[in-house]
Amino acid sequence: RIVDWTDRSTCILFGDGAGAIVLQGSDQEGGVLSAVLRSDGAGHDLLSVATPDVRELNGRTLGKMYMHGGEVFKFATRVVDESIRQVTEDAGITLSDIDLIIPHQANYRILQSAARKLNIDMDKFVSNLDRYGNTSAASIPIAMCEAIEQGRIRKDDHLVMVGFGGGLSWAAMCVRWGIPEPSQLQGN
Fold first, then answer.
1. Where exactly are the structural domains of the chain?
2. How many C-alpha atoms does 24 have within 13 Å on its Cβ side?
3. How confident is the model at residue 154, as a pLDDT?
4. Is 46 in contact with 72 (CB distance < 8 Å)?
5. What's 132's DSSP letter?
6. Alpha carbons 65 and 171: distance in angstroms, whole number
7. What value does the mean pLDDT take over residues 141-149?
8. Which homologous superfamily does the CATH classification assign to the domain defined by 32-43+68-185?
9. Which percentage of the chain shows pLDDT scores above 70?
10. Higher per-residue confidence, 136 vs 72
11. Do residues 80 and 162 make contact, with C-beta atoms less than 8 angstroms apart?
12. Across-strand partners of 47?
């Protein structure tokens, strides 16, 4: 509903999807090792959806998405690798300790830029852009689910999830995966 199908600079980029990650307390080892969450309101106009005053909404439609693609790309290529470096340092691990990076699926060139800057092989980055496009906030949960289904995530792996979006905002989390592989959970 917010994609402007006449805006060729954005309409071809986005897919449709839904995803969620459920967290729960556990006595098992593993869990969140570190996290960062940042925002910079100076870039609020680079990626946004115009909305009417909420007090006046009463059935009016929301505005369409606007993205200044070049500036968002520059922003993303700066914050993705910085965030990965910060969460690994805060977690007390090195970049080489990372088993898998599950990034927001916005643009493959952003992932390539991060891999190059971090000197990490692209095989450590989960990517499904070729199948779904950018599914916005659903992209990390969808990519994680697929990585689990493909057997790419194992107990005690160090995972980094990293995302960015409107506002401008960005976040990353480093976790040590504490759940056995699905085949072990089901007793197979």
1. 32-43+68-185
2. 5
3. 93
4. yes
5. H
6. 21
7. 92
8. Thiolase/Chalcone synthase (3.40.47.10)
9. 73
10. 72
11. yes
12. 67
Region class of 75: left (phi > 0), else alpha (psi between -120 and 50), else beta: alpha
Residue 81 vs residues 2, 88, 95: alpha-carbon distances, Å: 29, 11, 11
Are the C-beta atoms of 25 and 149 separated by less than 8 Å? no
Q: For residues 45 and 23, give the distance between their C-alpha atoms in angstroms, rounded to a whole number.
A: 33
Name which of 15, 14, 21, 28 is nearest 147 in CA terms: 21
Q: How confident is the model at residue 174 (pLDDT cuts 50, 70, 90)?
A: very high
C-alpha neighbours within 13 Å on the C-beta side of residue 12 = 3
Segment (H or E) for 106: none
Residue type, 157: D
* Interatomic CA distance for residues 51 and 63, integer angstroms: 5
Site of tokens 């659903």: 138
